[in-house]
Each structure stands twice: as structure tokens, then as C-alpha cells.
Amino acid sequence: LKDVFAPAHCSDARCSRSSRRPTPTEAAGAVAPPRVSAMLQVAALLGLSGEVRLEVVVKEEAKVLELKEHIAYQLHVPVLFQVLILQALVLSDEEPLAMHHPGEGQVLVVTIMVCFDLAKRCLHAGSEAQKTEVLRALVERGLVGDVRFQMAAAALEDHSKDVRETAVQVLALFGAEDYRGTVTQVASRLESPYDDVRSAAAQALIEVARRGDDQTLASLRPHLDDPSADVREMSMAAFGEIAPIGDEEAIAIALEHVHDRAMDVRWRALEALGKLVTVKGNRRLISTVIECLGMHSHYVRRWAVEVLGKVAERGDKLAIDDVIAYMDHSDEHVRMAAGVALGEIAEKGDMFAIEGLTRFLSHPNPGVRLAAILARRPLLR
């Protein structure tokens, strides 16, 4: 009875539910339509001159970061390098744009300032992933200025190998834009007290320096004798890319380092010779390259074979005789290298080479016999 005769204004919850009339929407069982989000018009002007203008329409709930992402996509200025200014106010990423919008039918106008400060701080104290991301962003065409070269070159000093290698890749892209500025920034890192920095700088010079650049060669030359084998290796690799082709002095320098105490430097020196030598027949050069066939490094032997074909004439009997002498070497890899080398300097049907190999067919070591057979086969008509 209490429920039946309860007054309409009763505060009892059950009473309220039973006495309230349903709305037309509820009576029809329909769901109320969602609220339509309003759109905001925003214009972003690049720089104080405002010559570049970007107009976008964003949702009412959009934040400043979303506008920055539009700018990054359209104007190629990465988010990390953007500072958005409204009159004298610097907008933070999490601020709603609606907070500053002048109202319906109006346009919010902000100024985009390109700033490298945050990126510099990130390169100094960020994680490895953050640093590589910043470095890759430096090549975006919306960024200009020498500060990019300076930042990328400074990253050659980073403790992370991945960051240093990313810096090398980025510097390679900058070289075409400002050659001398980029090379100068990189070459200055050759004087670092740290081996890995000097090595990274030499590696970067491979990518950015041009052949015949005397100034860069002068900076690089002392590091061919660096205390660090890694630095010597990268310096020799860079030397082979930068030294003038056919230059006798450069060839003599590379030849001297074929006898470096580090095997990696030796094969880099041979690689450099292969790029620099243009005239065949130099006996000292040929003899030195043939000696490398007997070294225990696979890379040294491989490059010795390749370079031999560039420094010795086909049918050079002295060279052929010297190579054949390695056919009974105790190391099977040396024997194989000698056999391949013969193919580089002996013509098909060269009886001098064929007869030289024939005497090894009766060698007591089956490995020597096999090497002689394999080397002899391509020479037979």
C-alpha cells in the first residue's frame, strides 16, 4: 500500500522510478545520438616572415602535439625541432588547441620556430634509440643550417657504436649539400684522444670526402700509423677512396702498409692498391702482392689474388713462377689462393704455367696434387 499511495514527490528511489514518465526516446527504445565534435581551423606560419603557411582543420579536442604532427608531415620539420608560438606564449604539447582558439568561424594562427636545442640535449643525454632518431631527423628537408653538420659530427664521439654509425650515414647525405663544411667537421674528430672516435671519423671520411682532396689527405695521413689498429684500418680504407688514382706517392704509401702488423690493415692496403694502380708491370709491387698469398688471413689472400690481376700482365713468367712456388705450401688455403691467382695472370693454353703445375701432379701430398689439378684445368685448351 505504501508503494501504491506514495506521493509523486517522494524521495524514495523506488518511488521515483515507478512514478517518472519515460522520455519519448526511452519509450521508443532508441539510443541518444553522440555529440558531433566541432572542428577548429588552424594556420601555422613557418618562421617570423611567415612566407610558408600551412592551414589545417583539426578536431575540437586536438592538442598542440597533433598540430605538430601535421606540420612534420606537410612541412618536413620534425616534431622535436618545432616550437609553436602564439603571440608571446610558447605552446606545450599537451595543451588543447581549443583553449587558445578565438571561436567559431575564426582561425587560430601560430608561428612555427625551428629550434635545435631540444635535439641537442637529446643527443647529449638521450637513450641510444632517441639519439639515432634525432640523427635521422636531421636530414629532413625542412631543416637547414650548418648546425646539422655540427650535431652529426659531434655524434661521432658518442659511446654507442650504433649512434656513431648512424652519424656516419647522416654525414654521407650532408656531403653533397656542404662538402667543405661537412668534411672539416668530420676531420677534426681525427684528433680525438679516443680510438673509437678517430675510427668513426675515418669511416665517415670514406662517405663524405672526394677523391683527390689534398686537405683531407693531409689530415688523414698521420693516422695511417695510428697506435690503434682499428684506426689504421679505417684510415687506410679512407686513403684508398680519397687518394688520386695512379698517384705514385699514394701507391708507395699503400704498398708500405701491406706489411703492417695488423692483418686488417694489410688487406685494406691491398684493397687501396687495387683502386689506385693503373699501370702494370711494377716488379716490386708484383712481388709484394704475391708474398701476400702466403699470409694466414683469408681477406689478405683474397685481395692479393684480385690485385695481382691488376698489377701483373697476362703471361708474366716471373709472376707465374713466383705464384706456382706456393702450390706446395703447407696450408691448403694458400695453395688454393695460388691456384686462383694463376687464373688471373696466365692465359688459357699458357704452356709455361701448365708445365709448372704439371710437376706437382706427382707430389706425395694429395692436397697439393688436388690444388695443381684444379689450377691446371682452366688453363688447358
UniProtKB/TrEMBL annotation:
Domain Ubiquitin-like stretches: 38-112
An MF annotation (GO) of this entry: oxidoreductase activity
SUPFAM superfamilies: ARM repeat, Ubiquitin-like
Entry-linked Pfam families: HEAT_2, ubiquitin
Highest taxon of source: Eukaryota
InterPro entries cross-referenced by the UniProt entry: ARM-like, ARM-type_fold, PBS_lyase_HEAT, Ubiquitin-like_dom, Ubiquitin-like_domsf
Protein name in UniProt: Ubiquitin-like domain-containing protein
